[in-house]
Amino acid sequence: MKTPEAFLPDFCSLTTAFMLILGSLLLAFVLALADFSPRYDFLTEVGLRGLFIAWIAWLSAALLCAMRRWLEAWRAFRAGAAAFATVLLVTLAVGGAAQAGLARIGYPEGTGLEPWAFYGRILAISALVTLAWLRHQYVQSRWRSQIRAESIARLDALQARVQPHFLFNSLNTIASLIRKEPATAEELLLDLAEVFRAILKKTGKLVPLSEEIALTRQYLGIEQYRLGPRLKVAWDMRQAPGDALLPPLSLQPLVENAIRYGIEPALNGGKIEIQGRLARGSLVLSILNSLPEEVVRRSRPGNGVALENLQARLESCFPNRARLYTSQADGRYQVRIVIPYQGAGHENPPR
C-alpha cells in the first residue's frame, strides 16, 4: 500500500520504460555535444553513449520494479535513498561490463580513460542526473498532493452549498404534511435523516451511481407526497452500470431543479425522465423535464446556479474529462452529464 509520501513512479509500466528510452537518447545526445574531442564520429558517439545509458536505466528500472512493494511502503527519504543507491550500483556494474567488453566488439582502445577516471566520471554523472530526477519527482509529487487537497476542499465547499437546499426543500414538504398526515411526515423525516447520514459520510469522495439513484428516489418520494399526481417520473437506467463512480449529489439537485422550474409552476404538473447509459467508455446521464408555457417563452430556465455548481464539482473530480450539456426544445429541458466510467473498485481520481 502506498504511503502518503510515496513519490516514485511505477517502474513496471510501459510508459516509464518508454520515457527511459527517450531520456537515455536525450542525455546521450547532450553528452556527445559536450565532448569537444570525440574519438569517433558524432552518431557513433551518440549510439555508444545511448546504449550505455539505456542499459543503466533499464536495469535500474527492473530492480526498482522488483522493489516496488518496499518503495511504496517506505517514507520518501528512505525510498529515494534506495533508488539512488540502486542506480549507482547498476552504473558500476554496467561500467565494468563496458570497460571489459569494448575491446571485444572492435574498439581496442576501450574507454580511453584510466579505470579510476572512468568510474569516477560515470558515477559523478549518474549521481547528478539521478539526484536531479529524484528532486523533480518529489516536487511534482508534492505539487500534485497540494492540488488534490485543494480540489477536495473546494469540492467539500461546493457540496456544502448544495446540501442546505436539499434539506430546506425536504423539510418544507414534511412540514406541509405534519397536520394532515403526521404518521407520513414522521416516516419521511426518518427517511430524510437516513439520506443525510449517507451524504455526510461520503463527503469529499465519489459514490456509486446506485447510491445516487437511491438518494434521488428517496427525494422524489418526498416530493411525490407534496405534488401528488402532478409529478410523473420515468426511470430508464437499465444500461447504466450501478458501480459507476460520480460526485455525490449529482442527480438530486438536477431533479430538484426540474421540479422547481418545470413541474411546480405548471398547473397540471409534468413529467421528468431520468436516463442513464454507458457509451464509449463514458457514463451518460440525462434528466429531461417538461416546461410550462411561460418558461418555454423565456430564453432559459432559471437554474444556472445549480448547473454551475455541478459543473465545478465535475471538473474537480474529472479535470478536463467531464462534460455538462443543456438544451431546450419542443417544450422540454434537458441536462446531460458525460463523465469517464470508473467502477467502484477503481481508486478515486485526483481532484
TrEMBL record:
Record keyword Transmembrane present: yes
Transmembrane keyword on record: yes
InterPro entries linked: Bact_2-comp_sensor_kinase (IPR050640), HATPase_C_sf (IPR036890), Sig_transdc_His_kin_internal (IPR010559)
One Pfam family cited in the UniProt record for this chain: His_kinase
Name of the molecule in the record: Two-component system, LytT family, sensor histidine kinase AlgZ
GO molecular function ontology, one term from the record: phosphorelay sensor kinase activity
GO cellular component entries: membrane
Alphabetic keyword roster: Kinase, Membrane, Transferase, Transmembrane, Transmembrane helix
Transmembrane segments: 12-34, 46-67, 79-98, 118-134
Native species: Methylomagnum ishizawai
Top-rank taxon, per record: Bacteria
Signal transduction histidine kinase internal region domain location: 153-231
